[in-house]
Amino acid sequence: MRHVEISSLANERIKRLVRLRERAHRDEEGVFVVEGDRLVNRAIARGLNLLEIYVTPGHRLEDEPISTIVESGVLDKASYRSQSEGLIAVFEQFPTRLTEIAPESTPLILVAESVEKPGNLGAILRTADAVGATALVTTGSGVDLFNPNVIRSSTGAIFSVPYAHVDLSDLTSWLDDNGVELVVAFPDADVVYWDADLSGSIAILVGAEHVGVSEEAAAAAQRTVAIPMSGTSDSLNVSVSVAVLAFEARRQQSKLDH
Predict the structure, then answer these.
(1) What are the DSSP calls for 96-119, one per residue?
(2) Do 108 and 165 reside in the same domain of the chain?
(3) Taking a C-beta distance cutoff of 8 angstroms, is the pair 119, 153 a contact?
């Protein structure tokens, strides 16, 4: 077992890890934090730039780079969940620009407007990964992609799904330039999503459940579709709405591929 290099909560490197829970500090340094073997290994496998790694005594990581050994209780205190799983790593933030996204021949782009909850954004990333979406784009206000809860709830999909955060006007211009139609989920739409033609090059936009889509998004829509609901609830969780529409679009697109 290697010797402990950090054993105090007063250590400046531990204090920095705690500060990196806050978006302002992450953005200032251009970094983000990943905890636990599974997620750290997935980030490394995707080729992300690993800057630092902190482990508890005796903890081993596949193909482990040089790491700093931290007393277990101290590393737990540095964890945003107060339970580090024995491993905390710091990575360089990756680009989140539309110019990083290369549309496919028949792209399926998922767009989430003003998603406020980290768990929802993480779940949408998982859907985007599972359905093989071309990209996930967020617009409007909302949660930071590099929020620790987004990373954890995405179960690593954050590292595999092309992602951008942009103003809606920039998105619509980009979609027009790439021949992608904007389809907006709207409760009062005349066409139910399973009756809509979602087989082409499309971007599906869904708004947050408590406010719906913005007036700007509604005005930009080239088509609208509804998800019918028969119960007492008046809205679906945004991640559920994205999943329903995304898998129907992929089903339709796959039929044309055969």
Answers:
(1) --GGG----SS-EEEEEES---HH
(2) yes
(3) yes
- Asked if pLDDT for residue 89 goes beyond 70, the answer is yes
Residues 6 or more apart whose Cβ sits within 8 Å of residue 23: 144, 146, 147
Do 256 and 222 meet the contact criterion of CB atoms below 8 Å apart? Answer: no
Q: Which residue has the higher pLDDT, 233 or 153?
A: 153
Instruction: Locate 109 and state its tokens.
Output: 């782009």
CA 104, 107, 113, 119: dihedral to nearest 10 degrees?
-80
* Dihedral, CA of residue 184, residue 141, residue 28 and residue 31, to nearest 10: -40
- How many separate domains does the chain show? 2
Residue entry with tokens 């402990």: 4
pLDDT for position 66: 75
Residue type, 97: R
Residue 33 to residue 92: CA distance in whole angstroms: 9
Both 21 and 132 in one domain: the answer is: no
**What average pLDDT is seen over the chain?**
91
Q: What is the mean pLDDT of residues 120-129?
A: 97
pTM of the model as a whole: 0.92
CB atoms within 10 A of CB 47: 9
- pLDDT beyond 70 at 63: no
